């Protein structure tokens, strides 16, 4: 069990593979499990570990001391991913279905060829995430309509802006809550924060309040 030494490439690879189809270390929301694993890292994972880097940037933006759950030893988390039942038909594809030894090689080669052709026809899955951002203005005199217009001018391949709303903060100040869908391999949270906070006449700060894989 465990990821091993998270300061080594081997440990980072184990973490990256584990997060390939997960948003968090345990369950569907951030918890102290994420806090423990985050603390074991010496720095942000390299770009060659994209799933681990996505998770790291997301957890970095949170108040980790306020996350729910109970901290456990680092080696309590991670480990091999259990096999899932009820997979697609490919998982049940028997390459060696013949009991006749004389025909086995020929049938095996035919089935390998059919299997390879079937796999090659499947479209490549694109990993996407749904984010909800909160963009805070400087004061109650900030033009929130103009602020949102500035945010939506941030464009790149793999980024689609969604719905938005204003959320009262207090003292007449509202913050902008806006959703977007990103392709994980093309758009990172660091990029979004850097681009949005460039509008320094309107934007005080940006936070990520929700991060879920699509």
Description:
The protein is of the alpha+beta class. The chain folds into 2 domains: 9-76, no CATH class; 128-213, Ribosomal protein S6/Translation elongation factor EF1B (Alpha-Beta Plaits), CATH 3.30.70.60. Helices cover 32% and strands 21% of the residues. The chain contains 6 helices and 4 strands, in the order ααααβαββαβ. It has helices at residues 9-18, 32-40, 50-60, 101-121, 144-152, 189-196, and strands at residues 128-137, 159-170, 173-183, 203-213. It has a 4-stranded antiparallel beta sheet with strand order 2-3-1-4, with helices on one face. A hairpin with a 2-residue loop joins strand 2 (159-170) and strand 3 (173-183). It comes from Littorina saxatilis. One of its GO terms (cellular component) is eukaryotic translation elongation factor 1 complex. EF-1 is composed of 4 subunits: alpha, beta (alpha subunit of the eEF1B subcomplex), delta (beta subunit of the eEF1B subcomplex), and gamma (gamma subunit of the eEF1B subcomplex). Interacts with elongation factor EEF1A1. GO terms for molecular function: guanyl-nucleotide exchange factor activity; translation elongation factor activity. Residues 128-214 form the Translation elongation factor EF1B beta/delta subunit guanine nucleotide exchange domain.
Offer a concise description of the structure:
Residues 95-119 form the Elongation factor 1 beta central acidic region eukaryote domain. The protein has 214 residues and is an alpha+beta fold. Helix content is 32%, strand content 21%.
């Amino acid at each position: 069990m465990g990821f091993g030494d998270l300061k080594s490439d081997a440990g980072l690879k184990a973490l990256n593979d584990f997060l390939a189809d997960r948003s968090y270390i345990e369950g569907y929301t951030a918890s102290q499990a994420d806090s423990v694993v985050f603390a074991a890292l010496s720095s942000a994972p390299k770009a060659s570990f994209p799933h681990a880097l996505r998770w790291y940037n997301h957890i970095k933006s949170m108040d980790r001391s306020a996350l729910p759950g109970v901290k456990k030893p680092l080696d309590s988390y991670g480990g091999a991913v259990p096999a899932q039942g009820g997979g697609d038909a490919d998982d049940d594809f028997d390459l060696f279905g013949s009991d006749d030894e004389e025909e086995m090689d020929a049938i095996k080669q035919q089935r390998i060829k059919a299997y390879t052709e079937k796999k090659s026809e499947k479209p490549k899955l694109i990993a996407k995430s749904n984010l909800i951002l909160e963009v805070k203005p400087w004061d109650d005199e900030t033009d929130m309509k103009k602020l949102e217009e500035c945010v939506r001018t941030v464009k790149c391949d793999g980024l689609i802006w969604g719905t938005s709303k204003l959320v009262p903060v207090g003292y007449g100040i509202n913050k902008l809550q806006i959703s977007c869908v990103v392709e994980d391999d093309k758009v990172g949270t660091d990029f979004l924060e850097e681009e949005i906070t460039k509008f320094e006449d309107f934007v005080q700060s940006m936070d990520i309040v929700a991060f879920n894989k699509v």
